[in-house]
Design a protein that fits this description.
The protein is an alpha/beta fold and 321 residues long. Helix content is 38%, strand content 16%. The protein has eleven helices and ten strands. Strands 1, 2, 3, 4, 5, 6, 7, 8, 9 and 10 form a ten-stranded mixed sheet that branches. The radius of gyration is 20 Å and the shape is globular. It binds ligand PBG and zinc ion (ZN).
Length: 321
């Protein structure tokens, strides 16, 4: 006798009853780009469908989140003044700090996450403090990242998410946050972050491309799966609350391995390059728009608990229908 798998695919009811994985809008996190100035509401060319918002225009995106039922966002700041140590990042009245306060004022229930990194704030565009020879100094960078995290905490952020890929960053942030009284503030680590070309559109959007070299001395080599598990394990040992794999779809093997090996909440980041590929294919009629949901469902199947995605609003609307 052969296996008649089709018996359980016969109609919509039985297919729905047996569907193993589902998308929920509560699992989706929307990236938001905040910029200085007034009255800025400008579509980002490299990331069409996403905008730069000045503080006075944040209500626009908060309204859309409320309407769609998206409960969480992750913030990125774009600043005019950049210097060697990214001082705008830990300015208590910096752009992200202002955005945190504003979003909380507009809807205190929105769960606000802040990306913690230096590349958007340094004049050289690297994710840390440079030695004279241009090498990113790990331990010096930790002090700055800690200051940034505390500054976001003071502004009222719900969670910090260090994306710098420095060694020991989770421990450094945890200790500094605790010393400053923020023992209840969770840390989501960009644990296995690859040195990916899929970040291209984001770097345009966030004005964060390195002015020389690349990020390969801190972000992970594209071929390494086992190393990803060591990075995740290190973050867990340092007290991380949620781990992340980034990018998402090209690294679902890593997502699955992390899920099978560790019992900790797992986030994936469907990055800018993944977004534009799907967006362009759909807009040009090359693929049906259901491919977007398919991409997110694949992440769930691989083991993701949370998904950061530029499609959050449109998918949430679809799920609500
Ligand atoms: C900052 C940061 C990057 C992304 C998230 N945080 C860019 C980078 O590491 O160069 C990428 C997000 C995306 O491509 O959507 N370190
Ligand atoms: Zn960075």
């Amino acid at each position: 006798m052969f296996y008649r798998g089709r018996r359980l695919r016969k109609n919509d009811t039985i297919r729905t009853m047996l569907k193993e994985n589902h998308l929920h809008k509560e699992e989706l996190i929307l990236p938001i780009f905040v910029t200085e100035g007034n009255n800025v509401y400008k579509e980002i060319e490299s990331l069409r469908g996403n905008y730069h918002y000045s503080i006075d225009n944040l209500y626009r995106i908060v309204d859309k989140m409320n309407e769609a039922g998206i409960v969480s966002c992750i913030l990125f700041g774009i600043v005019e003044h950049k210097d060697a140590c990214g001082s705008e990042a830990f300015n208590d009245n910096g752009i992200v700090q202002q955005a945190i306060r504003k979003i909380k004022e507009l809807n205190e229930k929105i769960y606000v996450i802040a990306d913690v990194c230096m590349c958007e704030y340094t004049d050289h565009g690297h994710c840390g403090i440079l030695d004279e020879d241009g090498y990113v100094n790990n331990d010096k960078t930790l002090e700055y990242l800690s200051r940034i995290a505390v500054s976001y905490a003071k502004a009222g952020v719900d969670m910090v998410a260090p994306s710098d890929m420095m060694d020991g960053h989770i421990l450094a942030l945890r200790e500094t946050l605790d010393q400053n009284g923020y023992t209840s503030l969770p840390i989501m680590g960009y644990s296995a972050k690859f040195a990916s070309a899929y970040y291209g559109p984001f770097r345009e959007a966030a004005h964060s491309a390195p002015s020389f070299g690349d990020r390969k001395s801190y972000q992970m080599d594209l071929g390494n799966g086992n190393e990803a598990l060591r990075e995740v394990e290190a973050d867990i040992n340092e007290g991380v609350d949620i781990v992340m794999v980034k990018p998402a779809m090209p690294y679902l093997d890593v997502v699955k391995e992390v899920k099978l090996n560790y019992n900790i909440p797992l986030c994936v980041y469907q990055v800018s390059g993944e977004y534009v590929m799907l967006k362009m294919a759909v807009e040009n009629g090359l693929m049906n728009e259901s491919v977007i949901e398919e991409s997110l469902l694949a992440m769930k199947r691989a083991g993701a608990d949370l998904i950061i995605t530029y499609f959050a609003l449109e998918i949430a609307k679809k799920l609500g229908e």
